[in-house]
Amino acid sequence: MAMIAPSLLSADFAHLERDCRTCLDAGADFLHFDVMDGHFVPNISFGAPVLSSISKAVPAFYDVHLMLTDPLDYLPMFLKAGASMITFHLEANSPVQETIDAIHAGGAKAGVVIKPATPAQAAFEWLDKVEMVLVMSVEPGFGGQKFQPAALEKLSALREQAKKIGRPDLLLQVDGGVDRTTAPLCVAAGANVLVAGSAVFGAADPAAEISFYKGL
């Protein structure tokens, strides 16, 4: 079975607590929290104060995706705010191993992220050092984009490499354009954590949508 991480970027910000509870009541495994700085990606989203408030109001596993130029500099505030897992981009400026070590030292799980233009092989050397790898199937920065099929090859390559190094259960997450059509393809390719934003929060019945993904 796949795990589902609804992306709060597509939630109703005026009713964020309600939407978080709806997801968790429907069986969501993670709550995906996108952080954008307007520099690494051309958009600005949530900051640590929002995570702090919502994590206190709705205890959950918060999967925090840092789309920041210098993620290492911002780790303390997000760790303090309640991040359960922090993922950051290999394309960012911060030293990868130092950033992973700092996340672990702060008591959270760590993951690395690759953009659509970055080959899967760029993440191979980190597979035995992190809990999760996130493959972006759209350009990071905006929700609602169309899924890029090249992500499927990356997922397959990463899953195969994880098995080779004795990490068959590595969390392999995919984010971007995940819906009822693309999600089964992602799972077949090796993904076991699905980030879905528009597909969940834009559905007439978000709970039913979550149940569908969890059944894959």
Task: Name a few traits of the molecule.
single chain; 216 residues; alpha/beta; TIM Barrel; 8-stranded parallel β-sheet; 8 strands; globular
Helix and strand composition category? alpha/beta
Strand order of the largest sheet: 1-8-7-6-5-4-3-2
Taking all residues together, what is the mean pLDDT?
96
Portion of residues in beta strands equals 15-25%
Total of DSSP H or I helical runs spanning 4+ residues: 8
Q: What's the story with the biggest beta sheet?
A: 8 strands, parallel
Low-confidence stretches: none
CATH topology: TIM Barrel
Task: Please write the string of helix (H) and strand (E) elements.
Answer: EHEHEHEHEEHEHEHH
Layout of secondary structure:
Blueprint: E1 3-6, H1 16-25, E2 31-36, H2 48-57, E3 62-67, H3 71-81, E4 85-89, H4 96-105, E5 109-114, E6 132-136, H5 150-164, E7 171-175, H6 182-189, E8 193-196, H7 198-201, H8 206-214
Parallel strand pairs: 1-8, 2-3, 3-4, 4-5, 5-6, 6-7, 7-8
